C-alpha cells in the first residue's frame, strides 16, 4: 500500500474569520471570496463577494465581482444594489457612498441619497455629527440634513467621540479637542493624543510614554507606560518599561500584575493574555485564569464568542468556558473526495482531535483506493 501525505490533498476552506457582529462573522475562503458564518460555524451567506464588512445596524457592506459596493441583510438579500465606487458601513442610520468621479455623500437604509455626493472625503456619522472635507480641502462638521454646523481651520480633524473631537493644528504643532460649538476645550502639547473612551483619553508625551487625561485636560494618570490601550469596562491594558502587560483602573492603580507578554482589553468581563511560552489564555477582572493558556492566538470575546487558533493551528470558535463551538476552518479535498464541513458543535478539544483523525484516516483510505485503482487500470492498459 502506497502511503499518501494527506496535507498534499486537503486545503483550508476558510483563510480568515472576523469577529462576530450582530450574530454573524465575515469569512474568506480559499478562492479569496467572502461570506458569513453563524456561531455554529454554518455558512449562512455564501462566499461570493470580493469584499465584505461586518454587519452594522442590520446591514453589511459588500462588493460584487465588478468591485462595486452595495448592502445586504442577514439573509443575504441585496437591499441596496452594488452600484457605488466606494462606500462605508452604516452608522447612526446613514452610510457614506462615493460616485464614479470620487465624490462622497450619504444614503439612508432605503438607498436614498439624503446628502448629495459632493465631498472629497468623509467620515461615518458619530455623536449625530458627520465630518466632511469639501473640494477646497476645508473640513466641516455637518448634521444629518447636510447643514454645516462648523467650518474648521485645522489641517487634520476627526469624528466626535463622547462629544469631543480631536483636531490638529500643524502650524503650532498642537493637538486640540473641541466641543460641538467649535470651542477649544483642551490643548495638548505632547507627542500624540487619542479619542476619549469612558471619559479618559490616551496621550503620549515627548518621551513617547503613555498616560491619560480627563475632559478638562488634567493629567489623571502620568505618562509612564511603554504601551497602552483605551479604557474599556473600567480597565486598561498597559505595558511597563520591561514590556510586560498588566491592567490598571481609572485612577492608575494596578489591579492585575505586569506578568503577561501580551494582553487585550477586557471585553464581556474577560481579557486574552499570553504567558511566557507565548500561549494565549483568558482571565477575569480579578486576574483569575478562567481558560488556561493553550492557544497560539486568541481574540477578545465578542457576543459570547472568541476566535482562537489552537496548537494544531486549527481556527476555532470557543465560548466563555473554553468549550469549542465550531471549527470554521473547514477541510475539503482537492480531488473532491470528501466535501465535508467538519464542524462539531459543543465538542471538547480531545473529541475534535479524534474526529479530525477519523476524518483524515477516511480520506487516507479513499486516496489509497484511488491510487490502487489507477495502478490496476494502468496495468490493464500495458497488457493491451
Strand count: 36
- Unreliable parts: 1-11, 329-349
| Main structural class | mainly beta
Radius of gyration: 26 Å
Overall pLDDT, averaged? 87
Helix content: under 10%
Oligomeric grouping of the chains? single chain
Largest sheet, if any?
Answer: 6 strands, antiparallel
**Outline type:** flat
Head-to-tail CA distance between termini: 25 Å
**Number of helical elements:** 1
Biggest sheet, strands in spatial order? 30-31-32-33-34-35
Strand content: over 45%
Task: Describe the structure in your own words.
- This protein is mainly β.
- Helix content is 9%, strand content 46%.
- The protein is built from one helix and 36 strands.
- It has one helix at 349-383, and strands spanning 10-12, 14-21, 24-29, 34-37, 43-49, 51-56, 59-63, 69-72, 78-84, 86-87, 95-98, 104-107, 113-119, 121-122, 130-133, 139-142, 148-151, 156-161, 164-169, 174-178, 184-188, 192-197, 200-204, 210-213, 219-225, 227-228, 236-239, 245-248, 254-260, 271-274, 280-283, 289-298, 306-310, 315-318, 324-326, 331-333.
- The strands form nine sheets. The chain has a six-stranded antiparallel β-sheet with strand order 30-31-32-33-34-35, with no helix packed on it. The protein has a four-stranded antiparallel β-sheet with strand order 2-3-4-5, with no helix packed on it. Strands 6-7-8-9 form a four-stranded antiparallel β-sheet, with no helix packed on it.
- The longest helix is centred in the C-terminal third of the chain and has 35 residues, at 349-383.
- The radius of gyration is 26 Å and the shape is flat.
- 33% of the residues are buried.
- The model is unreliable at 1-11 and 329-349 (pLDDT under 50).
